[in-house]
């Protein structure tokens, strides 16, 4: 008898999948009600698959009915990921209202049927809160990664594949809106940020292809989420750690620029601590154009680093940061420039300290990319030298510095 009942359920499952995808919500509702009466005959995979398909194709009302008829579900994290992927704001809010956690680990079920022979993990092997390395690996694949992924034709736990149109810009706007409403706990918030930057990085790998808008959408979302973090409206202390994991030798400059612009204190800390970054003077000079002032200690380190390496244009950009080169950072820069033999740069820094920001610096920031001048110091003549620089001799410059530092 049980076997006969199971055969009937398998047929009803196939019919339900078809009518849910067809958009015939009346037939789908009837089928879900019949399945609800036999929910204990569903395998965990069949159980979860119905919710996931409803989240892709069904209205909020149909998803709500599915939830009521078949709850409790052994797992719902991927269902929420699919709703977000498809830009289903009403469905996403319904699941969040029911307490669905995007990064939840799968748990037990009341089913009396064993899992299917296909034996696909309900979370598809993605990282969840049950994994110790969550947030530690920038390019890891977690359930949050599924939010920003296209359909690949293997999402189904059972039955045939399913997919629908997606728009990553809409998805990013939805995630930003829900994050702004405080709908995600700190761990989920942090990992959504990580997954968005990782997706942007993948899109940038396909530079010149059709994935350019994906990078723009995901970097824009990441910027909005970091802003929420700065406003204490989402995430926790791990946001800084997540951002710093993307500061790596293989990183695209667009990603590094995001970190500079949205969390300058994180990038300044990386410049002070990462030897590979310190060794790439040209890159650091280009990044200065995306940075703003950090802590006094960070500002002092950067000013000294740029002066030691003769980075006139980058220091001109830094001189526009209010008050930064007027204090200890400027003094450190003068000492470093003099010690490295960059006499003209040291003299300009001396004048800047005496006359205040803008002295001899012209009305603009110069070349924001801040190209380094190299070990030979500032080029001869006026190339790379601020407008108005008098061209003091190295002897005069060093004498002036001696007087200042004594």
Description:
This protein has 406 residues and is mainly α. The chain has a domain at 263-406. 57% of the residues lie in helices and 0% in strands. It is built from 20 helices and no strands. It has helices at residues 2-22, 25-36, 44-57, 60-70, 77-85, 89-97, 143-147, 168-180, 186-205, 212-230, 238-245, 253-262, 264-273, 275-279, 281-288, 296-308, 312-318, 328-339, 343-355, 394-405.
Radius of gyration equals 29 Å
Q: Tell me how many strands there are.
A: 0
Number of separate helices: 20
Strand content: under 5%
**How does the helix and strand content classify structurally?**
mainly alpha
Largest sheet: none
Low-confidence stretches: 109-117, 358-394
Distance between the termini: 99 Å
Rounded mean pLDDT score: 85
Q: Helix amount, in percent?
A: 55-70%
Order of helices and strands: HHHHHHHHHHHHHHHHHHHH
Gross geometry: elongated
Summarize the structure.
The chain has 406 residues and is mainly alpha-helical. The protein contains 20 helices and no strands.
List keywords for this structure.
406 residues; 20 helices; elongated; mainly alpha
Mind sketching the topology for me?
Layout: H1 2-22, H2 25-36, H3 44-57, H4 60-70, H5 77-85, H6 89-97, H7 143-147, H8 168-180, H9 186-205, H10 212-230, H11 238-245, H12 253-262, H13 264-273, H14 275-279, H15 281-288, H16 296-308, H17 312-318, H18 328-339, H19 343-355, H20 394-405
Helix pairs in contact: 1-2, 1-3, 2-4, 3-4, 3-5, 5-6, 8-10, 9-10, 9-11, 10-12, 12-13, 13-16, 16-18, 18-19, 19-20
């Amino acid at each position: 008898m049980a076997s006969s009942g199971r055969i009937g359920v398998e047929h009803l499952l196939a019919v339900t999948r078809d009518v849910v995808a067809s958009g015939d919500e009346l037939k789908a509702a009837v089928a879900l009600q019949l399945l609800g009466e036999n929910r204990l005959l569903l395998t965990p995979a069949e159980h979860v698959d119905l919710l996931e398909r409803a989240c892709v194709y069904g209205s909020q009302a149909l998803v709500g009915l599915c939830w009521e008829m078949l709850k409790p579900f052994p797992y719902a994290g991927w269902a929420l990921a699919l709703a977000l992927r498809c830009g289903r704001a009403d469905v996403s809010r319904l699941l969040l209202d029911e307490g669905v956690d995007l990064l939840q680990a799968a748990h037990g079920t009341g089913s009396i049927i064993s899992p299917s022979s296909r034996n696909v993990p309900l979370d598809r092997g993605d990282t969840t809160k049950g994994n110790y390395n969550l947030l530690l690996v920038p390019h890891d694949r977690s359930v949050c990664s599924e939010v920003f992924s296209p359909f690949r034709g293997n999402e189904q736990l059972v039955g045939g594949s399913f997919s629908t149109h997606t728009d990553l810009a809409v998805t990013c706007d939805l995630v930003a809106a829900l994050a702004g409403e405080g709908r995600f706990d700190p761990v989920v918030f942090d990992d959504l940020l990580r997954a968005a930057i990782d997706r942007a990085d993948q899109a940038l790998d396909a530079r010149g292809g059709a994935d350019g808008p994906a990078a723009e959408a995901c970097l824009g979302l990441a910027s909005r989420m970091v802003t929420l973090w700065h406003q204490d409206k989402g995430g926790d202390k791990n946001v800084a750690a997540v951002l710093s994991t993307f500061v790596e030798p293989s990183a695209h400059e667009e990603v590094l620029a995001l970190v500079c612009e949205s969390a300058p204190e994180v990038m300044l800390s990386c410049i002070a601590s990462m030897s590979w970054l310190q060794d790439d003077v040209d890159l650091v000079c280009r990044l200065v154009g995306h940075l703003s002032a950090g802590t006094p200690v960070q500002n002092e380190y950067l000013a000294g680093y740029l002066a030691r390496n003769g980075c006139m244009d980058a220091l001109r950009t830094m001189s526009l940061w209010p008050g930064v080169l007027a204090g200890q950072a400027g003094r450190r820069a003068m000492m470093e420039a003099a010690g490295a033999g960059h006499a003209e740069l040291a003299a300009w820094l001396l004048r800047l300290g005496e006359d205040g920001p803008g002295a001899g610096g012209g009305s603009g920031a110069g070349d924001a990319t801040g190209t380094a001048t190299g070990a030979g110091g500032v080029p001869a003549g006026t190339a790379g030298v601020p407008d108005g620089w008098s061209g003091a001799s190295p002897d005069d410059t060093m004498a002036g510095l001696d007087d200042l530092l004594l």
